[in-house]
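ping. complex inputs:
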Amino acid sequence: MNLSFDVEEFIKEFENSCNKVQRKTFDKNQVITSYIQKRNQFCILISGNADLVRYDLNGNRTIIEHFSNNDIFGEVFYNVTTNNELSVEARSKCEVLIYSYQNIHYKCKQNCKFHQKLTECLPELILDKVTSLNMRVELLTKRSTRDKLLGYFNLLSTRTLSKTFKLPFSLTDLADYLSVDRSAMMRELKLLKEENFIKKDGKMITLLYK
Amino acid sequence: MNLSFDVEEFIKEFENSCNKVQRKTFDKNQVITSYIQKRNQFCILISGNADLVRYDLNGNRTIIEHFSNNDIFGEVFYNVTTNNELSVEARSKCEVLIYSYQNIHYKCKQNCKFHQKLTECLPELILDKVTSLNMRVELLTKRSTRDKLLGYFNLLSTRTLSKTFKLPFSLTDLADYLSVDRSAMMRELKLLKEENFIKKDGKMITLLYK
DNA sequence: GATTTTCTGTTGCAAAAACAACAAAATTTT
DNA sequence: AAAATTTTGTTGTTTTTGCAACAGAAAATC
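pong. complex structure:
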């Protein structure tokens, strides 16, 4: 995502002057935050990869969203009504900025540039999130596992401007992301290979159609 | 959705002074807009009901989103990459405000209150959209038709603060919204009734558990 | 660099969902 | 108020997906 601000510059700025923001580091597999809809937490992922996951009563894990550089997340985007716990888990070492959403609108004591800039960029950041969620809905509403796979591959192909691209997930995680059973997905992948829709070498996928 | 502005007041205002906004009325079943990612259209539904729908190559119709009063929509929220056409169809008579997203940020000649207020409310409006999209993803990632139905019923129950509520859809549309086959959904509804999870009378549903 | 853990690939079988088709009910149009 | 259209409810059959289980490959940990 091409943000119109330089996060590094921000960090230098706020560490000296801003009292409204926390900067935290998380190790791989640590839980960054759980959504409990009390704190109105709003976060920006500065580096690393993380997933918003849900475990349901049947033991299914679902990757609701996948976050990378400059993605935003937090319970402020959720009306938590479900019984299932939602939590954001670090997939690699992560650096995260954590705010309270309310505080974003109030200037901090020092009226730091960090806050000014953030207020300015916020609509754009949130708009990006809407776009990416719409894409997610588009994908999840596909009726078959095959259509979900091809839809996702198309997305990656469009993003990378190439017929060949690398999956940002393990296949296990991909199944949890597309919300399908892993073995069924593997079967479908095999068929897609056999029918010459795709070529697959590890996590490298090549689209062979159109 | 509880907006912090009064749309009626706005309309009076802008009709006299604002040259950046179009106000249009649509009859039932008319196409309000199609997403073609050229015009950066941004719309607010003032009255009526409308759906964002997709028709895929297999003839399946999917209701991607359902809009009612004060909901926002438009191609600006989409990176249209799919082959499938997306269009917003009026379910009843609709009044719609149509902008170009860029124009929202520039003050119009008269610097009308309308634009001022909109700029002010925009982050809140978009945030609402994120929340509702997250709910949608939550629903669509449920693995079974039963869980989707119960998840959706829970949502409506929470919204109306009541165990009894009216479906805002026909059952045909509900199936398209949950992205499942209608007859399979009907079968599941029947089972839910037989197993005393719900009571159903036309579009009125009552939850019998918890 | 050996060991443990996770991931990939596969399969038979069970369960769920989709497809297809139709009649009855309800709604809309004329 | 009659006719046409859409929606609801139902069911048999086919297809797809999920479940369970396991072996080999790869990756992570010690």
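The longest strand of chain A covers residues 41-47.
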